[in-house]
Amino acid sequence: MKIALDAMGGDLSPVEPIKGAVLAAQEFDLEVVLVGPPEILEAELKKHPGAGRVSVVAGGDAIAMEEDRIVQAVRQRRDASINVAMGLVRDGQADAVVSAGNTGAVMASAFFVLGRMRGIERPAIGTLLPYNAGRVFLIDAGANADCRPSHLVQFAEMGTAYMERVVGVTRPRVALLNVGEEAGKGNELTQEAFERLRETDLNFIGNVEGVRVHKGVADVVVTDGFTGNVAIKVGEGIADYILEQVRATIKSSPLFITATILLRPALRRALKSLQYEEYGGANLMGVNGVVVIAHGRSDAIAIKNALRLARDAAGSGLIETMRASFATSSETSPAAGR
């Protein structure tokens, strides 16, 4: 398994992506190809003895977060690190690509270099969220601010394929994120999407409220990208707040500090699920290749886990399954033409 890593993408590049690449190569039995200016990457890579399964492919710098015309920049700068990394996947020289760079740039590069999968109306971002007994796949987490009901049906189909092929869930339960669980709740989009989802062969169980997403009532939660992105970022903010409060409370008393020594293993296990680094990133679904978008502030641990996420998807047969499914069902699916 060989994963292309946009080593210049992210707030902490190239130091943390390279550290993460070395960790992943050692831990997950895979090869990592760093993409970026060779003189920069090779100098940093020399700081990590034993990084034999990490190599460098020449590319330009990242497309910066502050650039105004992201799509234009992606089109014009063919040597940008993200474009070169995508090209490795397109040409069969890598099995997947990972980047912590500008999300818009990663998406645009995937569209232009890899192309949209036949039968897919809108690619979407899907991310795994935790609950006590496992994970739930939220899709769309930010790719499409404005959606039609047919898009949400396809998001449900893509999420189902991911949970079946990558996570190993048999006949995943699909729910529609809404303001209430009863049929007829929500705006025009969710009401119509609800009816369309009921017409499919998916294991659609109805609406789910935000408060129940993390309780494991569904395996796939479907929403538009605007709502999904707000939900994800509110969740990240709450997780950060909880972590800050726990740390501050522990430090507030010598007694708490002493007690923490005994409770440290339990606390680590409990708080681990709140840290975004443990999840690696999100999957860009609906393009011709495995693409994982990591958090912009990803450190080495987050990059390592993003590479693991990419490895799991690339090795699952997900892309081949989706290509076959959407190519044959694009004209007969309830989503088609609506």
What does this structure look like?
This protein has 338 residues and is an alpha/beta fold. The chain has two domains: 2-120 and 286-316, Isopropylmalate Dehydrogenase; 124-277, Isopropylmalate Dehydrogenase (3-Layer(aba) Sandwich), CATH 3.40.718. The chain has eleven helices and eleven strands. An eleven-stranded mixed beta sheet has the order 3-2-1-4-11-10-5-6-9-7-8, with helices on both faces. It is globular. The two termini are 39 Å apart.
Write the layout of secondary structure elements.
Blueprint (H helix, E strand, L loop, with lengths): L1 E5 L8 H14 L2 E6 L1 H8 L8 E5 L11 H7 L4 H10 L5 E4 L3 H12 L9 E8 L2 E6 L9 H19 L5 E5 L10 H12 L3 E6 L11 E3 L2 H27 L2 H19 L8 E5 L4 E5 L5 H15 L3 H12 L9
Parallel strand pairs: 1-2, 1-4, 2-3, 4-11, 6-9, 7-8, 7-9
Antiparallel strand pairs: 5-6, 5-10, 10-11
